[in-house]
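Example record used in the benchmark description.
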Amino acid sequence: MTFGDFVREKRLKEGVNLRALAKELDIAPAYMSDIEKNHRYPPDKEKIYKIAEVLKLSEDEKNQMFDLAGEARVGTIAPDISDYVTSQNAARVALRKARDLNLGEKEWVQILKSIEKQGQKK
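Model output (structure tokens):
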């Protein structure tokens, strides 16, 4: 699934017409249509947050939409986490180390559980 497909599906499910969504984002309806047809890259992260708000997306759906936005631009990451990754030296070091060690999904799930456990202690 692409970013545009995702937004269109959620927009239709929520009963929001394309023009109304474009108006909420302060963009032209034609531009919104091009995004949904995957003829344009996803908008900036502020507009993606606004899409999530207007379409009443759950946290998981919002994260999925951000991931799809990152995938739309080959070689980039989800725009909601890019600032964090670039501002945290240790995060970049950890990601490179994980890449060098070829960590897979299983190992990342273990790391995620450890992070969540740390968060519960606070």
